[in-house]
Design a protein that fits this description.
4-stranded antiparallel beta sheet; 3-stranded antiparallel beta sheet; 15 helices
């Protein structure tokens, strides 16, 4: 139906501009009515105005557009242009969804100040999170809001995400003049907190091996023996494994840092792979993240280690490398860490050299 001169609405988020200019049909669709109106006005004015007048009109139209550009629109634009192109963007998706439910989501971006950011952080701290649950009456899965207090680390991740959205809005989209997060005083910013240093204690390694089965067990062994990230383990391909020379090649597309690397395989890591049905090509594992999380929670509950996380195994594996006598450059070549900066960039250690060391017993 017609909503304005030359503009018709054809869907909830579809506005079509249709007009004749210079004997040619101009037909274009937009997601918002504001964008459609700006395009219509610019098209009509284009032939009537000189170059200077056109520039003034464009600037005025852009200013009007920016004044109606909300935080919710910024979130969706960021989601499409930035977030969905990241590896592991599913986790960030839930964060963006939560920000879209905040009180300031409908507020124009240019009106958001540092005080609004502080209030948003306070809301994130106490707003809780949605979890899956069973409806006792209908026996169906439902989403239930669980009242929890977010950790400083969680709030800090949200703050970094919000800061990046505003930074992109200012530098790439030209929607605002400055980033309001920059004006948040340090005293009001989420604290860094102590780094996590949880490692396996006592006989927890043996106990976890007893509890985990199948591919979940393989993931556990590989994470402890190779310091690989969970996503890297789940993306392993048969064609990249050399069982004879005991190494795995990770392609750049399968790593978090977009750097390909060779990972030497210890005897335990090799044995874990050899227990699986051998393929020629394709994924080594087909376990989902959800299945892995479920198996992990059951196992850690059974051994009474509720604070043990899957990512702790990367800390464990990295520590073991140093206990086996690995140097900084050697360890970073295995783990893929970039903390050595330029020194790491200039190291090209061969996997054969690392293989000799990875099978040495750890020092007490």
């Amino acid at each position: 139906y017609k909503v304005d001169t030359c503009i018709t609405q054809q869907g909830v988020m579809s506005f079509r501009v249709k007009l004749m200019r210079g004997g040619h049909l101009v037909d274009k669709s937009f997601d918002t009515l504001a964008d459609a109106r700006i395009f219509r006005d610019l098209t009509l004015a284009n032939a009537a105005l000189d170059t200077n007048e056109q520039a003034t009109f464009v600037a005025r139209a852009k200013k009007v557009e920016n004044k109606t550009f909300t935080f919710a629109q910024a979130i969706e634009k960021y989601r499409k242009e930035k977030s969905e192109k990241k590896k592991g963007w599913e986790k960030e998706k839930s964060q963006l969804d939560k920000l879209a439910r905040s009180d300031i989501a409908t507020k124009p971006l240019y009106q958001i100040k540092s005080t609004d950011i502080i209030k948003l952080m306070e809301w994130i701290k106490i707003s809780g999170r949605y979890i899956k649950a069973k409806d006792t009456k209908t026996k169906t899965d439902v989403r239930v809001l669980k009242k929890t207090v977010a950790t400083d680390a969680t709030v800090r991740r949200y703050f970094n995400l919000i800061r990046h959205i505003f930074e992109i809005a200012a530098t790439e989209w030209n929607k605002i003049d400055s980033n309001p997060c920059a004006n948040v005083p340090k005293s009001a910013r989420p604290k860094d907190g102590a780094p996590r240093d949880r490692r396996l204690r006592g006989n927890e390694y043996a106990l976890m091996l007893e509890q985990l089965t199948g591919q979940a067990k393989v993931v556990f062994v590989r994470s402890v023996e190779t310091a690989m990230r969970r996503g890297e383990i789940l993306s392993m391909k048969w064609e990249n494994v050399d069982l004879n020379n005991s190494y795995l090649m990770l392609k750049a597309a399968d790593t978090k840092t977009d750097d390909a690397r060779y990972i030497p395989l210890s005897n335990a890591a090799l044995d874990a792979i050899k227990e699986l049905p051998r393929g020629i090509k394709g994924d080594i594992l087909n376990i989902t993240i959800g299945q892995l999380r479920h198996a992990w929670k059951l196992a850690r509950t059974a051994i009474r280690a509720p604070d043990l996380r899957m990512h702790d195994m990367r800390h464990e594996a990295t520590s073991r490398l140093f206990e086996k006598g690995f140097g900084d450059i050697e360890a970073a070549s295995v783990t893929g860490h970039k903390t050595l900066g330029m020194l790491k960039r200039y190291s090209h250690l061969k996997h054969e050299h690392l293989l000799d060391k990875i099978n040495r017993p750890a020092r007490a």
